[in-house]
Design a protein that fits this description.
Helices cover about 55% and strands about 0% of the residues. The protein contains 7 helices and no strands. The chain has helices spanning about 20-35, 40-45, 50-60, 75-80, 80-90, 95-100, 110-125. It is extended. By secondary structure, it is mainly α.
């Protein structure tokens, strides 16, 4: 579906997008997502059509692995080091958190997330490689 966006192929990452670049990126993402919405041609392709064959190929190849944000595609540390990483984040934004989230125990968020991260990730992505 998406090829590698290698610098060898002329691609580059931008730190900040201009207004026009942002609009173009959002329009492209919207078109990609709309293609898969219920009732779209992707889901209504009929037997034997080229669209149905492409859909079935995509379902077989892409759907089982989801996308790069699924837990199986992430480094293990993303689920096991939340407590320590959150402590840094919480420290960096402590003043804002106190102001915006009065009475919220922000210091324990990392530990609370780490306690459930693996289970929630598996439940949210049951089609992952380790399922």
């Amino acid at each position: 579906l998406l090829e590698d966006f290698s610098t060898d192929d002329g691609w580059r990452q931008e730190l900040l997008l201009s207004v026009e670049q942002s609009k173009a990126a959002l329009a492209t993402l919207a078109q990609m997502h709309a293609f898969f919405w219920a009732g779209s041609k992707f889901w209504t392709a009929e037997g034997g059509s080229e669209a149905e064959m492409k859909r079935d190929q995509m379902l077989d190849a892409v759907w089982p692995s989801g996308m790069y944000t699924q837990p199986d595609m992430q480094p293990k540390e993303q689920m096991t080091e939340l407590t320590d990483n959150w402590a840094i984040h919480n420290g960096n934004f402590a003043e804002v958190f106190v102001e915006e989230l009065p009475g919220v125990d922000t210091a324990s968020i990392g530990a609370r997330l780490q306690a459930i991260a693996v289970e929630v990730g598996a439940n949210a992505h049951p089609f992952g490689m380790s399922a």
